[in-house]
Design a protein that fits this description.
Layout: E1 6-9, E2 18-23, E3 28-33, E4 37-42, E5 48-50, H1 77-87, H2 95-116, H3 118-126, H4 130-141, H5 149-158, H6 162-177, H7 182-195, H8 201-211, H9 221-231, H10 243-260, H11 272-288
Antiparallel strand pairs: 1-2, 1-5, 2-3, 3-4
Helix pairs in contact: 1-11, 2-3, 2-4, 3-6, 4-6, 6-7, 9-11, 10-11
Length: 293
């Protein structure tokens, strides 16, 4: 058994999959288990079943040190599911969940699909209808409370002239619908937001999330930093919007979506709206003790 090896504890199968983080000279193994967190155990073959068929894991790959601060507040996904089901007993199928979390985001998605679908968007650009397109983006943003008023104001103030609105619309279209180089389009949009004084993670990711909730997440910095922390998932966070952090966030979202599906029919996420809501709810509950109902 070496550092980095994936294992199960022979006598504690309920701890789930583990990764050997450190082997010390005193004969102890420090192993991080998905269901139990970090454990200091006697390094003896009878206690471990080595899993050679696994060479990587979305969450465990990010844990590299026994002193990693990301492990100190770790909660297993099973625990997070229990918290979520206390708030919404029927999970994603709970009527209260639909009312408080999913419905308004999905309505914004439907509206954006109608007003700013790719053919419609392209047609209005070809007709130089940038003012109309800007009005439509404002309408979509104002349909939810996901972006704080001061963040919306920063974006609005930065788009005061027709030239700024045209550049905004052109870059937004490329980020939403041109799939040739998503990293470049993301960074071009980020550079523009910085230029107009509206560089916020919320402004950067709102339209991606609302238009394409099947593959993109909305980045609410505090909630997602807290959510990643309690899951010990390294999202490589930086305050300025960047693709490295966002790509890690998307991996986090897909990991949760896949793992939640194993907890029964009430936790089968339809899309990343459900994942975003799950992270937000459990982070709020753990850090602030807020019952969202």
């Amino acid at each position: 058994m070496e550092e980095g090896t994936f294992v199960y504890h022979s006598n504690k199968p309920e701890w789930g999959l583990g990764k050997v983080i450190k082997l010390d000279k005193q004969g102890y193994a420090y192993v991080f288990f998905l269901e139990a967190g970090m454990k200091r155990l006697t390094n003896h073959p009878e206690f471990f079943t080595v899993i050679n068929s696994i060479s990587s894991h979305p969450l465990l790959d990010g844990i590299t040190s026994i002193n990693d601060k990301s492990t100190s507040k770790y909660r297993s996904l099973k625990h997070l599911v229990e918290i979520f089901l206390k708030i919404f007993p029927k999970g994603f199928n709970d009527p209260e969940y639909f009312t408080h979390e999913r419905e308004y985001k999905y309505k914004a998605h439907v509206e954006m699909k109608a007003l700013l679908d790719e053919p419609v968007f392209a047609k209005l650009i070809a007709e130089n209808q940038y003012g109309e397109l800007y009005k439509r983006t404002s309408r979509i943003m104002n349909m939810t409370n996901l972006v704080f008023p001061n963040e919306k104001m920063a974006l609005r103030d930065g788009l005061a002239t027709p030239a700024e609105q045209q550049e905004f619309i052109t870059l937004l279209y490329a980020m939403l619908y041109k799939e040739d180089d998503p990293t470049s389009h993301f960074h071009e949009f980020a550079r523009f937001l910085k230029k107009i004084g509206a560089s916020r993670w919320t402004n950067q990711t709102y339209f991606l999330f609302i238009r394409h909730p099947e593959k993109y997440l909305f980045m609410k910095p505090a909630a997602f930093q807290q959510g990643a922390e309690i899951c010990a998932f390294d999202i490589k966070y930086k305050s300025e919007p960047n693709w490295t952090t966002y790509s890690a966030l998307l991996s986090f979202g897909q990991y949760l979506k896949n793992e939640l599906s194993g907890y029964g029919p009430n936790l089968q996420a339809i899309d990343l709206i459900d994942v975003q809501s799950f992270i937000f709810c459990v982070a709020q509950e753990i850090y602030e003790g807020i019952q969202l109902k």
